Amino acid sequence: MADTLTGAFDLTGRNAVVTGANTGLGQAIAVALAEAGAGIVAVGRSGMDKTEERVRALGRPFRAVRADLSTLEPVERVVAEAQELGRIDVLVNNAGIIRRADALDFTEADWDAVMDVNLKSVFFLSQAVARRMLADERGGRIINIASLLSFQGGIRIPSYTASKSGLAGLTRLLACEWAGRGINVNAIAPGYFVTNNTAALRADPERNGQILGRIPAGRWGDPGDIGGAAVFLASPAAAYVHGIVLPVDGGWLAR
Ligand code: NAD
């Protein structure tokens, strides 16, 4: 543990790999970790210009790694390129997709696409990173971005609910295997945030009204609302926290 409360949240000298960091929650998490002192490796399919600009403005090291995490093909390369910035201390598995259709009409393609990005690649990237974290016995942090659908059923998103419920279980399993070896594995469950992921919901006045009416905080989450939880789980302050799924949801689950 760090000596002071402020120091307990300090990530100076650590490096964090964040997948899907070009936009939305991934970008907000990368910026928050950089604010706390971390160097950032931003992994994703598209340009990371805005994220790079914000991280560099904070004076932190930055590297972008292009990778499509819909297959396992890039996993070893992602780790190798990330290590060019330095040791990987934190991995944030944020990249995720959603497909919407009634369960009766849901296709195999939409099932596989979501499971591959949201669950399969998360597991194998975590495995690849954990092997390095364990090799030098300095441990690390893995933070999975789960969902309210890790706790609830939802409607019209069967593969998303299956993947995010599976991710909560995977978080607990990895915590059980690696807690004793110095790796803290935890998850964050964002509520309803204003990002591309929820554009369809916000564009539908009826769904938008239903969702807003259920959130005790009375507003959608802003991506800036997520960073504190990520900094906490990445930091010395969370040294004894393992296997939790931390909701950041404006009170949704409390209702
Ligand atoms: P977003 O659509 O804005 O961002 C998703 C990110 O994942 C993007 O950076 C995208 O490029 C990346 N990504 C998707 N497929 C990829 C692939 N094959 N390879 C590499 N990168 C890929 O949405 P967001 O809301 O910022 O989502 C981030 C995470 O938060 C997701 O896991 C999502 O399920 C989760 N989440 C979001 C909300 C919300 O309300 N927005 C709620 C709960 C959970």
UniProtKB/TrEMBL annotation:
Where do the TM regions start and end?
A: none
In terms of superkingdom, the source organism counts as: Bacteria
Q: Which GO terms describe its molecular function?
A: 2-deoxy-D-gluconate 3-dehydrogenase activity; NAD binding
Q: Give the signal peptide, or none.
A: none
Q: Which part of the chain is the Ketoreductase domain?
A: 14-214
Which NCBIfam families does this one have?
Answer: kduD
What's the protein called, per UniProt? 3-ketoacyl-ACP reductase
Identify the species of origin.
Methylobacterium variabile
